[in-house]
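Q: Two folds, back to back.
A: First:
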Amino acid sequence: MTVSENGERAAALTLTSALVGGITVVRVTGLLDATTRDQFADYLASEAEEHGPDMALDLGGVTFMDSRALGLIVHHWQLSTNAGGKFALIGVEYAKTKVMWITGLAQRLPLYDTIEEAIAAFG
């Protein structure tokens, strides 16, 4: 648990989104694990329903990711592509998302260093 200077508990996961060139970019900050899975799942489903299947997840602010969170990301990747959309992951750091490399999914998922690169790949 993280506690701020005024003694309040810090949120384990913060999710924000913006439309960039018609693509939903979700910024993820904090933990992606069993304690935040439902919050993450609900947010992604809501964004996809409201804005369509083109989605990019900015994972630059992720402090840790477990296999359940990775499974959820793969699920949304599949939903997006099956609906004719495109999907991208941005700012993925090995040290915080090791499970992506351990499973071999880092070689299969569409990874980009920057939002600009991901948006350009959407064409």
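A: Second:
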Amino acid sequence: MNEQNSNNILCSFNDTSVKKKKTFLAFLVLIFGWVINNIVLAWIHDRVPLDQPPLPDIFFNLFPEIPEAIEITEIIMLFILFNALFIMVFHEHRWIVVRRFFCCAGISYIFRAICIAMLQVPVPSKNTFCGPQMKSSLSNIIDRVISTFWSAGIETFRPRILCGDLIVSGHTICLITGLQVLKLYSPRKIHFIFSFYNLIALLAILSILIARKHYTIDVFLGYMVATNVFRTYHSLSYSYHRNELYENLHSESIIKSLVIYFEKDTYSHFFDNYLSISSYLKKIPTCNLDKKNIPI
């Protein structure tokens, strides 16, 4: 295919192909995942064995407990997420990138909700405060969900009162998903700062453990869930756009149908990463290929 035909296809794709309502539906997947997490947490809080000591953990044997370290984690997490949000909002193909982020994060949180519902373990520290336990009822669960929903799990906004969401770290899912968005969708010219992102992400994860908010296995599982969901989604997306979906070993994944639905009107993720800041400052037609977007 010659360059002119490629440009024409890209213009058509930018103008008419992407259905923005699917991005909204992907956002609902994320909200659903978060709501399910809150409902499960509100339910299992009364089932956490608070009378048992913390489980043995190799990291806890090597490093002291510093509860305030969680503030470092949350500052870094918000920094990475805001950087990822900037990349997504100003990306040339923003409606695709944001859609994929919402979907991957939502699937990860749904998986997390299933895991924390399956297993409740003692809290990682004797200093962990947990609210009073009582007999579960629908009204109690609703009250707890409402009281915790808007803090988004960030203890800086609202101190933890519910316990039990240990298996698969939610902070780690946020960190790793945001980090992968930065790595995959950032313009090539800023790739030199990825070492910095990796370093602060590692510091954030270590701070989770030092603060005794999670066991080491929780953080490890959070990393595995976030990376595998993100990579499986994008692997299926790539194969789908090359008409090789059923040759991909991930085609047996339970998220395959979701990927097909959200990718029908999109383009493979192997497009050039440009930040079209100019389209926000001036009303420049997105298919005017003579007017370059702003690479950073």
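Q: And?
A: The chain has a mean pLDDT of 82.
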